[in-house]
Amino acid sequence: MAKRTETPGRLDDAARAGWLYYVAGRTQDEIAASMGISRQSAQRLVSLAVAERLIKVRLDHPIAACLELANQLRRKFGLKYVEVVPSDPGSSSTTVGIAEAGAAEIERWLKRPEPIVLAVGTGRTLKAAVDQLPAIECPNHRIVSLTGNIAPDGSAAYYNVIFSMADAVKARHYPMPLPVLVTSAEERELLHGQQLVRSTLDISAQADVTFVGIGELGIDGPLCVDGFLEKDEMMELMRGGAAGEICGWIFDADGKLIDNPINERVASAPIPSRESSTVIGLAKGKRKYKAIRAAVVGRQINSLITDEDTAEFLLRN
Amino acid sequence: MAKRTETPGRLDDAARAGWLYYVAGRTQDEIAASMGISRQSAQRLVSLAVAERLIKVRLDHPIAACLELANQLRRKFGLKYVEVVPSDPGSSSTTVGIAEAGAAEIERWLKRPEPIVLAVGTGRTLKAAVDQLPAIECPNHRIVSLTGNIAPDGSAAYYNVIFSMADAVKARHYPMPLPVLVTSAEERELLHGQQLVRSTLDISAQADVTFVGIGELGIDGPLCVDGFLEKDEMMELMRGGAAGEICGWIFDADGKLIDNPINERVASAPIPSRESSTVIGLAKGKRKYKAIRAAVVGRQINSLITDEDTAEFLLRN
DNA sequence: TTTGCTCATGAGCAATTACTCACCAAATGG
DNA sequence: CCATTTGGTGAGTAATTGCTCATGAGCAAA
Q: Which positions fall inside the Sugar-binding domain (chains A, B) (predicted)?
């Protein structure tokens, strides 16, 4: 844009007005009086000072850096909601900070007066967040699990989040009476046809907000550690370009669900719409960098709660 | 489990709200919505952030008139560094504006990569400036107090700047374990002979930059108000031609230290060299005109941060 | 357990600020 | 020289913010 020569004195006046307003804390009326102009003009000068960035505001608090990172992430990836918590260099925990922030966000949703459907996935991080929840009564809301609560050996799964949630939150809750992975696509169809499962799937599709963990792959990743996949299956997945998983749905580095028999055996509900609802991923940590990045760029999630280090990685790469 | 409203968490919220308001430019309604609180609470958090000095506002524009005044002052008095901030006609504060400008200058020095010795005097204005400092880590620098930190009644002095500074700035700091005024010249010699005091005095003599307030005399001046001098002592001083003081060192209208028993009882370190280092005075206001003028013409300081009105006085007289 | 204190909260209202509109004056350009 | 553009102004009004008050929760002392 062709910048014309501004009236030279005007910026000076703007600076003076801005100073009087922000530093000295005078009202625009007082500024107008002391500069001999109308109140409106004083207002214009003040906003000009802001627009011309003559006024520098700095926030002197550790949280400032996090907010800045969150803003950048939101812009870069077009996310709906981003929260960045400070990294704790001394801790190797994958949940500290995130759990609290996640719980606070869950609580904010549950405190809404209008009835909502809140869906939850699985994972250690999400479990940790749910464990931070205070007791809340919200009989109007419904809480639904996207993933099955049955482990490969038939027991209740290790990280079934919805039951922990039900302990704290008084609301109707809908677990998913299925394993995470079934033996074949056919079996999945059969199970999903059951009335009970059907209705839970229907509710999950209406979720207003969804909280999911993001799992990394590899023989140390949750799918292997929890016994859902054998090492050789995992190896094959990784050879096929798999980068991470959410509720068992495995995606590649671009965040696209991969075309592999294993994805056809996932009995979890589909991840609710990222267009019409809020899908919040909770994850941090170097081992998950690749998975988180994939989930964000491929829009498996549209909101993120993570830590500073991870945020910086996502912005750099 | 259950969470409570802790004070630290509240400050974090305040920081977040302040950031959203001042940096991100959201309205308080939007902030309230995104933080899940009422608008009133959001407003309170924002004003808390201001009250807690989490928000630092700085004007990044050399206002022409101020620059011009600063230039003239520098020329007229041969000063090294002069900063003039706009006068706020409606305010009787002796610190508004100067404090921010002083803090910015201190910060500039502390951000230097090479190790420096920074000396500080005392006074309300200087205290206000130091209170504006953000947290800085500068383990290479040393910060030394020129004046004692013990009040006449034996308590820590009202305006002991170095401890406030130590709160914000991570650097080695050297307080002066002495009163400002001792009972006799002999006592001063005795105290100054102590090893600890000796080494602090030595460091102060090496100061690369010094920040001092300039005190006016009179029964409303700081020396009387803070109880260092009795009224009759003050009256006698003024009859003797005293015009102002820096760190307790009392000088006449020509800026020469006066020949009076009281000056022999000042236990402060001598003001560091105005030939080989930078000695910056912070002061404004009609009551201080005479003292500031004396300090400048007598070269008790070689740099000045003041306001327009004071600058104009100094140029006229 | 009761009492009293502190402090956060939401509501309502007053003060302050931002924005839009219509108009004017000086520069610009044919 | 006039039409046009640019930039500024005040008025009026909508939006936003700041403040006071009544209330209730948490907590410590009695």
A: 62-316
Give the DSSP H or E segment for A176.
strand A169-179
Task: Report the residue of chain A nearest B20, measured CA to CA.
Answer: A67
Q: What is the pLDDT of residues A165-210, one digit of tens each?
A: 888 888 898 998 888 888 889 999 999 999 989 999 999 999 999 9
The second-level CATH assignment, the architecture, of A63-316 is 3-Layer(aba) Sandwich (3.40)
- Give the Å distances, CA to CA, from B282 to A41, A58, B98, B152, B310: 33, 23, 7, 24, 11
Residue that is written with structure tokens 């000068």 in the block: A45
Contact across the interface for A12 and B61, Cβ inside 8 Å: yes
Indicate the range of A48-57, A123-132, A203-212, B268-277 predicted with least confidence: A48-57
CATH fit for domain B7-51, picks 1.25.40, 3.30.70, 1.10.3470, 1.10.10:
1.10.10
Q: Is B254 helix (H, G, I), strand (E, B) or coil?
A: coil
Max intra-chain CA distance, chain B? 71
Helix (H) or strand (E) segment spanning residue A303: strand A303-307
CATH number of the domain located at residue range(s) A8-51 in this protein:
1.10.10
Q: What is the DSSP string of A79-112?
A: -SEEEEE---TT---SSTTHHHHHHHHHHHHHT-
Nucleotide nearest to B38 (CA to C1'): C10
User: What is d(CA B267, CA B192) in angstroms, rounded to the nearest whole number?
Assistant: 8
Domain positions in chain B are 7-51, 64-316
Which residues face B211 on adjacent strands? B120, B280
Whether the CB of B8 is below 8 Å from some CB of chain A: the reply is no
Under DSSP, the state recorded for A156 is B
Nearest-CA residue of chain A relative to B92?
A24
d(CA A4, CA A7): 9
Q: Do A57 and B23 touch (CB under 8 A)?
A: yes
Q: Is B100 on the interface with A (CB under 8 A)?
A: yes
Q: Output the pLDDT for position B6.
A: 38
Q: Which two tokens stand for residue A86?
A: 């400070």
Q: How many CB atoms lie within 10 A of CB A183?
A: 9
- For chain B residues 134-153, those near strand D by a CB cutoff of 7 A are none
Give, for A262, the enclosing helix (H) or strand (E): helix A261-264
CATH: 3.40.50.300, 3.40.50.1360, 1.10.260.40, 3.20.20.60. Which one for B64-316? Answer: 3.40.50.1360
Contact between chains at B96 and A55 (C-beta distance less than 8 A): no
Within 10 A of B163 (CB to CB), how many other CB atoms are there?
14
Distance between CA atoms of residues B251 and A73, nearest Å: 59
* Nucleotide C7 C1' to residue B258 CA (A): 53
Element of type H or E holding A83: strand A81-85
Inter-chain residue contact A55 with B55, CB threshold 8 Å: no
Q: Which nucleotide minimizes the distance between its C1' and the CA of A43? A: C17
Q: How far is B25 from chain A (nearest CA, A)?
A: 11
Token couple for A121: 């996935």
- Which residues of chain B neighbour A56 with C-beta distances below 8 Å? 57-60
Residue B167, chain A, CB below 8 Å: the answer is no
pLDDT reported for residue B1: 33
Contact partners, residue B285, CB within 8 Å, separation at least 6: B94, B307, B310
